[in-house]
Write a structure and sequence with these properties.
The complex is a heterodimer of chains A (248) and B (221).
Chain A lengths: L11 H33 L13 H28 L2 H33 L7 H22 L3 H15 L2 H11 L19 H33 L4 H11 L1
Helix pairs in contact in A: 1-7, 2-3, 2-4, 2-5, 2-7, 3-4, 3-5, 3-7, 4-5, 4-6
Chain B lengths: L1 H16 L1 H22 L3 H22 L2 H9 L2 H7 L4 H30 L4 H28 L6 H28 L5 H30 L1
Helix pairs in contact in B: 1-6, 2-3, 2-6, 3-6, 3-7, 3-8, 6-7, 6-9, 7-8, 7-9, 8-9
């Protein structure tokens, strides 16, 4: 096997083909992990002694919350690379990730309130973690609307990259808010310094769901970046060739 | 350094020639705060409890609404472009402009706040803490807001957009600012909150002028 020239894929034209080849794999993996994760979540994991059946919502709630934070960090990394090396593709990737991140932030908030009603007796609590998740959602909305408001793609890429980098300061605050403010919210469910307090099957279900969400994110982001590439490069020869071939 | 002094003098002079801008922001703040008792009712205990938060939220909005003034005049007459071209540090120019923005939009609010606090029945101690927290917090609002203002320069719907970008970033200041007064009235002492506000101010002073300068270069290239 010869040495692969990775820089080749920094060009939107060659990445378009690569992304197209990768999407089915990630989509299939995502479905498999979702099925396994949901099966463990609904049938294998035991009923929680204190929280009853309602706790099962954590199998989507916790992975969604993780993903919303991860995606913001990944977006910021892509934005940083885009600003530093002037690579168009990284800006497109950041743009492609944003809606999925916002979706996960919303799912985390939505499922959280469904969990809060039976557990705390209220849909919403102004607790530090809920609030910072809400702020994260707002950051996504701000990023997306700034991106949408600027017509010139170069300025829009760079401006939204800057706001993503500014906003990423918020992500660690979200994560550490649990330790900073002692509030109603239960402590982090998984800790790397002490033994997990939950049954291993529950942990496995959550991890499978988290991987499924990862795969879903990658597949959807690649799909979206392909569309962005087509839109941005619509005046180039390879796109017009591609489109006429598709019509034929 | 001389560029900083130059920007300060120039922007201050321009602001003083248009005093109505300063007064508009101040009166927005006063009216905004006065609306709350009309909305929630005149119960003394309730007003006392929400007072610090109301004053802080109003300060946030007033500071945000005046962000448009920060760069737009210089942008539309081309001065800003010349500032970008000149060999002096753009960060210092931005810092100077932001400082004047604070002097003309933040400082009047800080001086007015104790009066409004009295209307909400805050005690003398709480008024002092409110004053201190606003004094430390409002410069952060101007500094962080400058990033949003420079990113949205010349965009359609820039005013609404800047609120989406900037208000989430204001939230830590709001939490610790309003929290300082609450902590002091509940007997916990406001030192912790005020220290965090001071830390935020130092952080903002160090980091935001560079970010705003980068944003200006992006918007004007």
């Amino acid at each position: 096997m010869g040495k692969i020239n990775w820089y080749k894929y920094a060009s939107p034209a060659s990445f378009y083909g690569l992304a197209g080849k990768m999407i089915p794999g990630f989509a299939a993996l995502s479905i498999v992990f979702f099925v396994v994760g949901l099966y463990i979540g609904f049938f294998v994991a035991p009923t929680d002694a204190q929280q009853g059946e309602a706790y099962r919502i954590i199998f989507i709630h916790v992975p969604a919350a993780w993903m919303s934070m991860f995606i913001y960090i990944v977006m910021a990394v892509y934005s940083g690379i885009g600003l530093a090396f002037n690579t168009r593709l990284s800006a497109m990737m950041a743009q492609a990730l944003a809606p999925t991140g916002a979706l996960f932030a919303f799912i985390a908030l939505f499922t959280g309130s469904f969990w809060g009603k039976p557990m705390w007796g209220t849909w919403w609590v102004w607790d530090a973690r809920l609030t910072s998740q809400l702020i994260l959602f707002f950051l996504y909305v701000g990023y997306i609307s700034l991106q949408a408001a600027i017509d010139d793609p170069r300025r829009s890429d760079r401006a939204s990259a800057l706001i993503a980098l500014v906003g990423v300061i918020n992500v660690p605050i979200i994560y550490f808010s649990v330790k900073w403010w002692n509030t109603l919210h239960q402590g982090a469910s998984i800790s790397f310094t002490k033994a997990p307090t939950m049954a291993y099957t529950m942990l496995a279900g959550m991890l499978f769901m988290a991987i499924a969400c990862w795969m879903y994110t990658i597949a959807v982001a690649l799909y979206r970046v392909r569309l962005i590439i087509l839109e941005r490069e619509r005046h180039s020869i390879w796109v017009s060739e591609l489109l006429t071939e598709g019509l034929r | 350094m001389s560029i900083l002094v130059w920007v300060l003098r120039r922007d201050m002079m321009l602001a003083m020639r248009r005093k109505s801008d300063v007064l508009t922001t101040l009166f927005f703040f006063v009216i905004m705060v006065s609306l709350f008792p009309l909305g929630v009712g005149p119960e003394r205990e309730l007003l006392k409890a929400i007072g610090p938060g109301v004053v802080w939220v109003a300060a946030l909005l007033a500071s945000m609404l005046s962000l448009g003034r920060l760069f737009s005049a210089d942008y539309s007459d081309g001065t800003l472009e010349q500032m970008l071209l000149c060999p002096e540090s753009l960060s210092l120019i931005v810092l100077g402009k932001t400082f004047v923005h604070w002097m003309t939009s933040g400082l009047p609010l800080v001086l007015m706040a104790p009066l409004l606090g009295l209307q909400f029945g805050l005690s003398g101690q709480a008024l002092w803490v409110l004053l201190a927290s606003l004094l430390l917090g409002t410069p952060v609002l101007s500094l962080v807001g400058a990033i949003g203002a420079s990113l949205t320069l010349g965009l359609r719907g820039g005013g609404v957009l800047v609120s989406l970008l900037v208000l989430p970033l204001y939230i830590p200041v709001l939490i610790f600012g309003a929290g300082a007064v609450d902590a002091s009235t509940s007997g916990l002492g406001a030192e912790g909150h005020l220290s965090v506000l001071g830390a935020l101010l130092v952080l903002a002073l160090l980091a935001t002028p560079k970010a705003s300068a980068a944003a200006l270069r992006i918007s004007l290239e």
